[in-house]
Recover the amino acids of this structure.
């Protein structure tokens, strides 16, 4: 970004973590210093505290801290014994980790198209893809809005197939007043810094109501050793502990999570009203069954790439989540999908654009973003 642009147009970044950090700086820094002095670096008591906190927040019985959101998905699949020759049905419109975790176990991701309004897995497409090899269904609550869980769960239950919610973007989102991560057999969360509840590095968590799954997950994250008996292994797991320092920081931040959701919702509502009369823009559709936490505020825009150039030239951050659906990724050509297989996902990838919506974004900044968009479409 050249100097002149920066001076003429003050920055509106896509995400600015400094605002929320400043808000609780003293408390966070005290926690980090105390943590270092205590030296209980691995599996400290903060992990169980955070697990109880997140389980309570989601309305589930149990939660297990793990190293990342990607590992939350991986360990959930491992807990179901999924591997070679198995299939897991999911959406092609998601972050790569959703499908990548399936592939890492030697199983095959089977994609179904999305609902063009919510961008979530379309339940109407689901039944036709179920085979005798289908071992799990994994809807993703994209951008912070839950998928249609009643329909998905009903179809899964008919065939006795477990449901894994990829709720990495949706901690606190609700569907018919139930929280993300409380509706499937497993709920997978990420504490990557850009998520609504973000750590100071990587982290993740799995929610479940099933005690057997709980015990298995707790074992799998420590190389599958017996409870309280290191170096005696019942299972083949991996090292996927949640870092204690992340748990300590996240415990502090969890108290502020609902305020941050509300700040994002207020920003989203302001965009909704400012952009309502722009015919070339579709603002996010939120189903009446859902309350979104707006991990992203993603519009559909005609001439998206030109619009993005203008935003960039005005020092306004934006991002394309996601530019290429997973069935079109180079590494997945062997799955045999083609352009045209999932028209809704393909179309959304060509028009989607995420705008700044983070807590700490001011009303004035939202107006500047919306104003620039209107200027582009000459309204
Ligand atoms: C962030 C994310 C993940 C992965 O989480 P990490 O903590 O980055 O490993 C998985 N699925 C979705 C939909 C995500 O947004």
């Amino acid at each position: 970004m050249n100097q002149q642009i920066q001076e003429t147009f003050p920055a509106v970044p896509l995400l600015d973590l400094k605002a929320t950090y400043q808000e609780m700086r003293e408390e966070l820094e005290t926690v980090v210093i105390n943590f270092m002095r205590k030296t209980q670096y691995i599996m400290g008591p903060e992990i169980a505290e955070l697990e109880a906190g997140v389980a309570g927040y989601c309305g589930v019985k149990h939660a297990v801290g793990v190293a990342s959101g990607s590992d939350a998905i991986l360990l959930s699949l491992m807990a179901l014994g999924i591997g070679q020759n198995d299939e897991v049905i999911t959406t092609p419109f998601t972050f790569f980790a959703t499908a990548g975790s399936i592939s890492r176990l030697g199983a095959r991701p089977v994609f179904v198209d999305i609902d063009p309004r919510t961008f979530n897995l379309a339940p109407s497409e689901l039944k036709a893809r179920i085979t005798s090899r289908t071992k799990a269904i994994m809807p993703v609550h994209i951008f912070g809005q839950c998928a249609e869980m009643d329909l998905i769960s009903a179809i899964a239950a008919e065939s006795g197939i477990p449901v894994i919610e990829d709720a990495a973007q949706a901690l606190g989102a609700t569907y018919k007043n139930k929280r993300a991560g409380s509706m499937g057999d497993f709920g997978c969360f990420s504490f990557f810094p850009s998520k609504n509840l973000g750590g100071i590095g990587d982290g993740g968590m799995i929610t479940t109501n099933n005690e057997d799954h709980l015990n298995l997950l707790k074992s799998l994250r420590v190389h599958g050793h017996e409870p309280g008996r290191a170096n005696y292994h019942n299972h083949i797991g991996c090292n996927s502990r949640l870092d204690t320092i992340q748990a300590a920081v996240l415990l502090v931040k969890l108290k502020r999570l609902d305020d941050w959701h509300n700040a994002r919702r207020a920003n989203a509502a302001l965009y909704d009203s400012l952009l309502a009369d722009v015919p070339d823009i579709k603002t996010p559709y939120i189903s009446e069954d859902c309350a979104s936490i707006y991990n992203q505020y993603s519009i559909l825009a005609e001439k998206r790439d030109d619009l993005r150039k203008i935003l960039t030239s005005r020092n306004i951050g934006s991002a394309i989540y996601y530019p290429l659906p997973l069935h079109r990724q180079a590494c997945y050509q062997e799955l045999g999908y083609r352009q045209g297989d999932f028209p809704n996902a393909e179309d959304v990838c060509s028009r989607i654009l995420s705008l700044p919506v983070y807590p700490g974004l001011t009303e004035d900044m939202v107006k500047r973003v919306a104003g620039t968009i209107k200027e582009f479409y000459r309204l």
